[in-house]
Amino acid sequence: MTDHRIVGRYDRPMRLPTDDALGIGLGSVADVVFGDPRRGHPVAVFGSGVSAVEKWMYDDSRPRGAAFAVGWIGVGTAAGLIARRAGAVGAAAATFTALGGTSLAAIGDRIADALDAGDIDGARTLVAGLVGRDTTRLDEAGICRAAVESIAENTSDATVAPLFWGAVAGAPGMLGYRAANTLDAMVGYRSPRYQRFGWAAARLDDVANLAPARLTATLVGVAAAQPAAVWRSVRRDARLHPSPNAGVVEAAFAGALGVTLGGRTVYAHGTEDRPTLGDGPAPLAADLRAAVRLSRRVQRLSAALAVAAQFRRRR
């Protein structure tokens, strides 16, 4: 008798209900232990592909830019769907790929170390890797302001947001979000080249970060020594910022640290006079170190919440 094997859904690898929770937890721990790899990071590979396609697809139009953005977000989401088939290992790999909080905090510490050592040029070079503004003429206060604002925004963008979308949709959510955020960082500028082509990428990133930015501000309030100052700063100042999301997290950090953020910001494409956020003096190296500690606390809280949310929804 011939042994006819029935092929169907029962031949697929078994997926346990807690795979996503376990994978998010393992990926978060891996980010703490290893940080971003210096070579071969999947996000860097993704960025290289985006740059290559942009060269032949670019056109000064919103429809072309929208197709570009949606296509690449689809690539990220598809990678997440493939990762999902690998169970907890795939979820862990997606989480590690999507997170960048540990490396963010490490750069903040290195900038503060350079300032404490009197190496203003070294600090300018380091902060230039975090921000898109012109850093060549920044003094200590300007460097610390740029670094604190970036740490605030990227605590949301590089940790809370991917974990939020991981809690909502697992690996596809994390990698789809990471694709949207990477596109925004590459083409979402208000420069003459990207004013129209990058419009869709910037708006999609804004939408994807609406809930995570407000969750980040809430977690800052939970982690801060003076939560009332956080809520006051967010309620009063966040709406003044041109970004619907960066203003929320920057105001939260300003309130938690007791410093003032915002003000005149010089970019390659022009100068912006940003509204001031928070109360107190301009941040210095000690405040930058406090921002790094606060970011790490928020990162741990968001990882714990994501694991708990996935575990609960899979029960």
Q: Any chance you could write out the topology, listing elements then pairs?
A:
Elements: H1 19-34, H2 42-57, H3 62-84, H4 87-98, H5 101-116, H6 120-128, H7 140-187, H8 194-197, H9 199-223, H10 227-237, H11 246-257, E1 264-267, E2 270-273, H12 285-313
Antiparallel strand pairs: 1-2
Characterization of this structure:
The protein has 315 residues and is mainly α. It has one domain. 70% of the residues lie in helices and 3% in strands. The chain contains twelve helices and two strands. It has helices at residues 19-34, 42-57, 62-84, 87-98, 101-116, 120-128, 140-187, 194-197, 199-223, 227-237, 246-257, 285-313, and strands at residues 264-267, 270-273. A two-stranded antiparallel ribbon has the order 1-2. Strand 1 and strand 2 form a beta hairpin. It is globular and about 50 Å long.
Quick tags:
about 325 residues; 12 helices; disordered N terminus; globular; mainly alpha; Cobalamin biosynthesis protein CobD; transmembrane helix; about 5% strand
Summarize the structure.
The chain has 12 helices and 2 strands. With 315 residues, it is mainly α.
